[in-house]
Amino acid sequence: MTRPLRLSLLLGLGLVLAACAKHPTTGGANPAASTAASTAASTAMSMGPAAIKQLNEEKSASVSAGKGNTGEHNPLYAAVAAVSGTANAETLSGPSMWQEGVNYTRLVPAQPTFAPPGKVEVIEFFWYACPHCYALDPLVQAWRKTKAPYIAFYRIPVMWGPSQRALARLYYTLESLGKIDQLHTAIFNEIHVNNDPLTGNTDADSERMQLAFVTKHGVSAQAFQNAYHSFTVETDLRHADEQMERYHITGVPTFVINGKYVADVGTAGGEHRLIDLVNDLSAIEHKH
User: Fold this and answer.
1) Which of 154, 138, 184 is nearest to 254 (CA)?
2) pLDDT digits over 156-208, tens only?
3) Contact 172, 244 (CB under 8 A)
4) In the chain, how many domains are there?
5) How many Cβ atoms sit within 10 Å of the Cβ of residue 250?
6) Measured between alpha carbons, how far is 31 from 131 in angstroms, rounded to an integer?
7) What CATH number is given to the structural domain containing 275?
8) How far is CA 152 from CA 59, 147, 181, 184, 282, in A?
9) How many whole angstroms separate alpha carbon 192 and alpha carbon 228?
10) Are 240 and 114 in contact (CB under 8 A)?
């Protein structure tokens, strides 16, 4: 088996094992297998030739008319750059460790973004119940404190079904109350450490469970209930739906850089490499 083919297979396996999919398979994942695959992918990446370079400008997404969450009918999610032996090398002087079509996908055309002028938009699509998002989050939290000042970072919770939508509503409710930075990590821990899913069989059950959680952490019950079905939260949920559809998000965690590049733990070759990739692509965009 040739090295490029072996590398592609390893990266593909890493992607499967390092993301929560829209339609997960039944049965639990094997943590040892996940670790081994991730290590193998990282090793293969480090052995591969330092080759290809990256690209250019603007940022993330805006509105579209579709109602679904999958983006299957989204005409703006156009052709993406396929795996290629060479990439458009515009700005870096010398070889780069990242290869277009292997470590990241370039969106054609690039999508409009919402970051302020002079900023590079970085979006993380995530799901609180995803173990891979939970594992990555400490790195993301640390990166937020040290990222370049020109990076405008946004999280968007996915909404593939009722349980994801309930957790997205919790996220945007706390954001509207100015409490999300305080409770973001606590939500992950409540689900993955305390085994409390924060979602029930009905929307009413989910709201009741989430209310109990937030009041335990000092949030006013009245303020939470007032915000939960507010116009602001409903607008944020619609916007998240539109962004998911625009970028056709089928697995998390997924990062979109400046409306042009899509990457995840599997394609980057590991969690730390993903953060490095986001930094490098953002730097390229900032130069333009």
Assistant:
1) 154
2) 999 999 999 999 999 999 999 999 999 999 999 999 999 999 999 999 999 99
3) no
4) 1
5) 18
6) 11
7) 3.40.30.10
8) 10, 9, 16, 18, 10
9) 23
10) no
Q: How far is CA 195 from CA 18, 133, 226, in A?
A: 21, 16, 27
**CA pair distance 36, 59, nearest whole angstrom:** 34
Residue with tokens 């490095």: 276
Retrieve residue 199's tokens: 């979602």
In the chain, the amino acid numbered 33 is A
What's the 3-state SS for 29-40? CCHHHHHHHHHH
Q: What are the two backbone dihedrals, phi and then psi, of residue 185, each rounded to the nearest 5 degrees?
A: -65, -35
CA–CA distances in Å: residue 61 to residues 68, 156, 179, 257: 16, 11, 25, 10
Cα–Cα distance between 88 and 91 in angstroms, integer?
A: 9
Please identify which residue in the block is written with the tokens 């094997």. 30
Q: Tell me whether residue 251 is exposed, middle or buried, using C-beta atoms within 10 angstroms of its C-beta: 0 to 12, 13 to 18, 19 or more.
A: buried
Q: How many whole angstroms separate alpha carbon 123 and alpha carbon 186?
A: 21
pTM: 0.73
pLDDT tens string 67-81: 333 333 333 333 443
Query: Pairing mode, if any, of strands 254-257 and 251-252?
Result: unpaired
| 69: number of Cβ within 10 Å | 21
Tell me which residue range forms the domain holding 153: 3-287
